[in-house]
Amino acid sequence: MEIKEILITSQEIEIAVDNIARQLNEHYKTDQPVIFVTILKGAIVFASDLMRKLNFPITLDFISATSYGSSTKTSGVVKILKDLDTPIENQNVLLVEDIVDTGLTLKYLKEILMARKPKSLKLCALLDKHSRREVDLDVDFLGIKIPDKFVVGYGLDWNEQYRYLSHICVVG
Ligand code: IMP
Ligand code: MG
Fold it and tell me: Which one in 4, 100, 113, 170 has a CA-CA gap of 20 to 30 Å to 87?
C-alpha cells in the first residue's frame, strides 16, 4: 500500500475541526466537566486538536477497541483492548472517534458505555464513510463525509503506518 493522493488537506481538516468544536461549544453549556473519551489510537490527533478549541471543562480518558487486523476489511468482531480508567455513571461522556465505517465499533462502544448509566453519551467523529454503514447508528457530531476509499494520515493508519501525516490521504 502506498499513498495515492491527498483527499483532505490539513487546512480543510482544520475547518472541519473548527465546525465540530463550534457545535460542541453550543451543545455543552454546562459547568459540569464532560469526560472526553478518545478512542485509541486513530482519534488522538483529531482529539488533541479538537479539545483545544473547546470552551467548557473536560477531563480526559481513553478507550481502545479493534475490529481490524492488518487488512483493510472489518472482521466484524470488536474487542476492547483498553477500557476507561474512570467510572462514568451519572457523568456526561463524549466519545471521540476518527472515522465511522461500518459503524460496528462505535455502536458496540456505545452499548457497553450506556450500560454504565452515564448522564449523557454523545458520539463525535471526524470522518464518515456513510456508504459502508452496516448498522443503524446516530452520530451526534460529524465532520466530513468521504467516499469508500481507505484513508490514512491525521492519526489514521494502514497497518500502523502513516498516522503522522498531516493531510488525509488515500492509499492503494
Ligand atoms: P467500523 O467499526 O467499521 O465503523 O470501523 C471503525 C474503525 O475502523 C475506525 O476506528 C478506524 O480505526 C478503522 N477504519 C475504518 N476505515 C478506515 C480507513 O479508511 N482508514 C483507516 N482506518 C479505518
Ligand atoms: Mg482504528
Answer: 100
Q: What is the mean pLDDT of residues 34-59?
A: 98
Whether this prediction's pTM lies above 0.90 is answered by yes
Question: What secondary structure does DSSP assign to the chain, as a single string?
Answer: --EEEEEE-HHHHHHHHHHHHHHHHHH---SSPEEEEEEETTTHHHHHHHHTT--S-EEEEEEEEEEE-SSSSEEEEEEEEE--SS--TTSEEEEEEEEESSSHHHHHHHHHHHTT--SEEEEEEEEE-GGG--S----SEEEEE--S--EEBTTB-BTTBSTT-SSEEEE-
pLDDT category of residue 76 using cuts at 50, 70 and 90: low
The minimum-distance atom of ligand 1 relative to the CA of 158 is 21
Closest ligand 1 atom to 132 CA: 3
Fold of 11-148: Rossmann fold (3.40.50)
Q: What is the pLDDT of residue 78?
A: 82
